[in-house]
Design brief:
This protein is an alpha+beta fold. The chain has a six-stranded mixed sheet. The chain is built from three helices and six strands; from the N terminus they run H-H-E-E-H-E-E-E-E. A hairpin with a 4-residue loop joins strand 1 and strand 2 (about 45-50). Helix 1 (about 10-20) runs antiparallel to helix 2 and helix 2 (about 25-35) crosses helix 3.
Length: about 120
C-alpha cells in the first residue's frame, strides 16, 4: 500500500485539467489516469458516479458556459488522503463569475470522491 501523500497542488492541477478539457475522448483519458474507476462527484447542482457520468457532467458545464475556464484559487491543501482546494470559473480573459471549494478523497493516489461547494454564483447562473 502506498502511504505517501500525493502533492495537493499536483492533484488539484489534474482535477482542473479535466474540467477544462472540451474534447470528450481526451477528458475520459484524463479521468482514467487520475480518477478511480468508481469515482463519485457531487455538488449542490449535479452529481455523478463513474468516469463516464463525471465526463458527461463536465461536458454539460462546457455547453452551458462555452469559453469559460477553470483556474485554481489560492493554494491547495491536504493531509493523508484528503485534499481541499478552491477554484474559479469565468470567460477566458475576463473576471471570474463563479467560485467554489472542493473536498477530495483519494484512493491509491487517484480521486475517489469529490464534494464541491459553490462559494460565489451570480443570479441566473
Amino acid at each position: 500500500m502506498n502511504t505517501a501523500t500525493p502533492d495537493a497542488t499536483h492533484v488539484a492541477e489534474h482535477y482542473i485539467a479535466v474540467w477544462n478539457e472540451t474534447d470528450e475522448a481526451r477528458r475520459l483519458k484524463l479521468l482514467e489516469t487520475h480518477w478511480a474507476d468508481d469515482a463519485h462527484y457531487v455538488d449542490p447542482i449535479m452529481q455523478g458516479s463513474g468516469r463516464t457520468q463525471i465526463s458527461a457532467l463536465v461536458g454539460g458545464v462546457h455547453q452551458r458556459y462555452p469559453g469559460f475556464r477553470f483556474a485554481l484559487k489560492g493554494r491547495p491543501d491536504g493531509h493523508g488522503d484528503q485534499l481541499r482546494f478552491s477554484w474559479t470559473l469565468g470567460p477566458s480573459g475576463s473576471e471570474d463569475l463563479i467560485e467554489g471549494t472542493d473536498f477530495v478523497q483519494l484512493e491509491a493516489g487517484k480521486l475517489r470522491s469529490v464534494t464541491g461547494f459553490l462559494d460565489k454564483v451570480p443570479t441566473g447562473a
